[in-house]
Amino acid sequence: MKIFNGKHARNRALVFKLSPVAAGCTVFLSALGANVYAQDAAVSQAVQATDANGNPISQVTVTGIRRGIEAAISIKKNSNSIVEAISAEDIGKLPDATVAESISRLPGVTAQRDKSSGRASAISVRGLSPDFNGTLLNGREQASAGDSRGVKFDLYPAEMLGTITIYKSPDASLMGQGIASTIDQRTVLPLDFGKRTVAVGYKAMRFGEHNNGLGTGTGYRSTLTYIDQFANRTIGVALGLVKFNDTGAEQPQSDGWGGWTPKLADVGSPLYNGQNVVVPGGFKTDIQRDPQTNKGAMAILQFRPNKDFVTTVDLFHSKNTDSTRKTGIEGAICGSTGSYDHVGVLSNANIVNGVAVSGTCSEFKADVRNHNEAVVDTLNAWGINSRLRRNDWTFTGDVSGSKVKHDANRYETTAGLPGNAGADTVSWTGFDGKSNLSPTYTTGLNYSDRSKIVLTDVDGWGGGLSGNPQAGYVAIGVTTDEIKSGRLSAKHDVELGPVTAIEFGINRTNRTKGRDQNEGNLIIPGGPYASAPVPGTDTVVTPLGMPVAQFNPLGTLGSIYQLLPKVDQPIQTDKNWDVSEKVSTGYLMGNLEGELFGLSYRGNVGAQYVHTNQTSVGYVVDTANCAGVAGQACPAYTIQGHHSYNDFLPSLNLGFELPYNQMVRIGLGKTLSRTKMSDLRPGGGVTLNNSYPGGARLTGSSGNPNLEPFRAKAFDLSYEKYFEVNGAKGYVAVAGFYKKLDTYVLSTSKIVDFAQLGLLSAKTALPAGGQYAGSSVGVLTTPTNGTGGNIKGIELTASLPFAMLTKYLSGFGVEVNHSSTLSSVNLLTTGLSVIDTGGVTTIPLPGLSRQVTNLRLYYENAGFRASIAAKHRSDFLGEISDFQDNPQLTYIKGNTTVDGQVTYEFGDKTMLKGLSITGAINNWTNSAFDRFAANPDNVVEHIRFGRTYSLGASYKF
Fold first, then answer.
1. Does residue 97 belong to any structural domain of this protein?
2. Which of 604, 619, 721, 790 has the most CB atoms at less than 10 Å from its CB?
3. Domain region containing 581
4. Which residues on adjacent β-strands are paired with residue 790?
5. Which residue in 819, 801, 647 sits closest to 737, CA to CA?
């Protein structure tokens, strides 16, 4: 038998007892209550006791900011991989209200704010977009809303989670990994607690405190957590409920039309005194309300009849409702946006350096906008995990499911002056020649006057007299994503040189995702110039100072409007599809421990073999024979795609223990991230392009059912120094990483034979003349696996309680981290939402902010806790949903958000023991959300969300 010295014996015991416990397990954990997927050790800050069966019981005795920080430090320190962690400060209390806000404070992690609510939503890790993260719940892959795989973290209330661990280096036993990271969210386990525990909380909230006269929103957040044990601690139960409500604050929004600032000749307008001057292109300005609700529920049942067997059943439900209501006005200045909108003539202008700094344009046809976008996301996840120990063997079985249903309804209405004659004037001052948001605008009409402003087809967007009227638009769609998985694994403790345990297993995941979309024009019966009164009497003053008529369009279909279905090519092919994936994974991993060059080390080495079988169903549309108007479909038929491929993913993690509580970690591996499922759709549209250089030629677009994943090789290196002085714990770390992206999915154009691809219908017209006469060969734009590039960066982290410096600063502390990331990946501007690219033909990696900094100062003493936190990220390329419900890339300006929180918890010697009072301010500096074109000075959309104030109480007993 191998003999270990005292230090190695302690390490070996630690690996044996805690190695199955993931860094993503709950704060309150024990060896026998761990989930099978947990791989890294986490040391519980608890007093250990045992029940009648000799099972360890965790009796939590420490709470608060330091509790959460020290538990997270223990997770990081004892992990075999390179990880970052967030741990609950108490039962049902992560540092922030949402998961995204909490983990965006970690090194190398940042979040994009939702442009409707201002809350952190999409998570980027190490400069890669959310689709490059694998997201798990209790170690199991999770379904997502929308077309992509990026999970909406709003569906996971922070109160129902104990810890969140971000794996930055790959691990052979971890399923659902991503190139950027794997984010594992963990719920509590009831048998980890020493007694019954109940916690309730209520928080009153005010949203959108702008101090500018706009309406604020009110809301609340209520929580209940119940944990108990029965039958001599052989049965454990945990229940959690969360309810959140936000009536929505008024948010000012201004859109500068992508920075389009034309010259008069560009829009067909007469020159001004012979000068072809620059004029504003157009503007859109809204007041938006975004009421939201969330209802979450969690139930966990554990059965552990003895120390060798445990079964855990967990259920998780969450439902988000988001109803965005916009009221505003939009219009072209001197140009035209439709057949009823005639080109204007410039007058009374002040010209400076070729720019009409001020002036007036005639023929202004403005559209009063009253839109409502309602989204309901419903998540249901479940899992059953059983583990049996026999001697040196541990056998585990796990089955699970995750399903998200995304229901979206979008109503758009227009009001203004009806008909093909009669228009307004618009004047401006202060135009800088660059941004359409720089001037002050004045209109001749009052757009809140219901005697003149009516519901109608203002501009002839549906084709006017030659087509169909369009007094509005409606889009109703459902996206459903479902994952079912099963796993069997075994682990055997061995003594084979440095190998202390061998783990192997198989995992099967079946995933199906589909989208079904119906859209169409809203028309008012009576012909092209038909109109109807704007209901109600409400008005709103837009951010540009223009009063407009306001009403809620929900319920108007059938009472005011009729629906004219629109079934053209983009709707049928891009928004209606089904994709199925069957992924089989076999893995083998060895846990390592030993000495090398006199240094003790621990870690793991292993590999996954992954077989993927994907099938998809889509539509082929003959765009050459489309009617071209609403209500009349293009000829279409279904088409199927199928592809299978294999991947071999090796990985190695080593952590070397240096003197004085120092550690150096190395991570090597190959990882993959799967592309958006919408990209896997087959089918598309083919049309005869008569304007193609060289003569008429077939062109088209489609998905690609043969797409394979993004693949990358990764190298990670980390140095960590841990401290413990005067009972206070902290650490500093420096980490560097390099990822070689072997493949990257790009949207490219290539020469194909449409007939061979099955995209050519019998009705598609072929070129009649020119060099491509009679040819089915043409140009197809489609997602393609191309070569990648590299991404590299450095991360600096410090978590320091000031008591380490002097006892007089006991209770004070700081957490700070900074990351700098660079990438050689450059993409084509395809899919960019702004018009002006400044002549640039490539764009950077989506999600990449070169600089990200987080700072948190805190104080905790005698029941009093206070903290202030700031998050900063530099400019980046983000993703939003456009007016057609399609994802679009867009430049977003960097921002800094500041949050503050104060809590007082009554002590054990008071009658109010267990009660705590908390007040908080979020977005303290009212940081704006700005999109820009070409350069940060050219802002095309400006949104302010205001501050959020909250005051709440919680009680634990």
1. no
2. 604
3. 567-777
4. 740
5. 819
